[in-house]
């Protein structure tokens, strides 16, 4: 039997600051041992997709801006810090930082949640290109894209955690 508190403590941050995903997956009997990235990931994705739109938006809004004020202040979660640094977002020129800041502001104004992209394997140019492209999406397209990116990030985090 999986200890609920231990499970939530370990996996509650996989979906950024949203432990309800781990809680519901476990409480609904969707998770069993042995824990695998595929098994836990599928359970978490199901819970995320079954959540209300307000809850999904809450998960999206819990994500930090890319290269934004939390990064500058050193207040990212360890996972987000590692992911952004891996893509070079901690080494932007002043001009690049200004563009990220402008895009973040415009994106949040349009969609009401931060731009989210799984940065693994991407560099700052790839991310800027996706940012410029996706800001032209409709609200429905971008909500779906952002949710898919959150699921991808969660899958990568689970694979990292369960490989340890």
Tell me what the structure shows.
The chain is an all-alpha fold. The chain has a domain at 64-146: UraD-like. It is 66% helix and 0% strand. The protein has nine helices and no strands. The chain is globular, with a radius of gyration of 16 Å. 30% of the residues are buried.
Order of helices and strands: HHHHHHHHH
CATH H level of the domain at 64-146: which superfamily? Oxo-4-hydroxy-4-carboxy-5-ureidoimidazoline decarboxylase
Biggest sheet statistics: none
Span of the ends, CA to CA: 21 Å
Q: If helices are DSSP runs of H or I spanning 4 or more residues, what is the number of helices?
A: 9
Give me the oligomer status: single chain
Describe the global form: globular
Secondary-structure-derived class: mainly alpha
- As a whole number of angstroms, the C-alpha radius of gyration is 16 Å
CATH class of the domain at 64-146: Mainly Alpha
CATH fold-type name of the domain at 64-146? UraD-like
**Strand content of the residues, in percent?**
under 5%
What is the level-2 CATH architecture name of the domain at 64-146? Orthogonal Bundle
Low-confidence stretches: none
Q: Could you report the average pLDDT, rounded to the nearest whole number?
A: 90
- Compute the number of strand runs: 0
């Amino acid at each position: 039997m999986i200890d609920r508190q231990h499970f939530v403590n370990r996996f509650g941050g996989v979906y950024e600051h949203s432990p309800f995903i781990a809680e519901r997956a476990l409480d609904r009997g969707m998770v069993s041992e042995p824990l695998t990235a595929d098994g836990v990931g599928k359970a978490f994705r199901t819970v995320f997709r079954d959540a209300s739109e307000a809850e999904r938006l809450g998960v999206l809004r819990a994500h930090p801006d890319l290269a934004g004020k939390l990064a500058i202040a050193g207040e990212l979660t360890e996972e987000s810090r590692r992911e952004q640094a891996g893509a070079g977002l901690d080494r932007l020129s002043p001009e690049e930082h200004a563009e990220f800041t402008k895009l973040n502001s415009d994106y949040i104004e349009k969609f009401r949640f931060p731009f989210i992209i799984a940065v693994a394997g991407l560099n700052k140019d790839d991310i800027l290109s996706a940012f410029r492209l996706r800001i032209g999406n409709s609200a429905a397209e971008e909500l779906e894209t952002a949710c898919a990116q959150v699921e991808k990030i969660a899958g990568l985090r689970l694979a990292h955690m369960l490989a340890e």
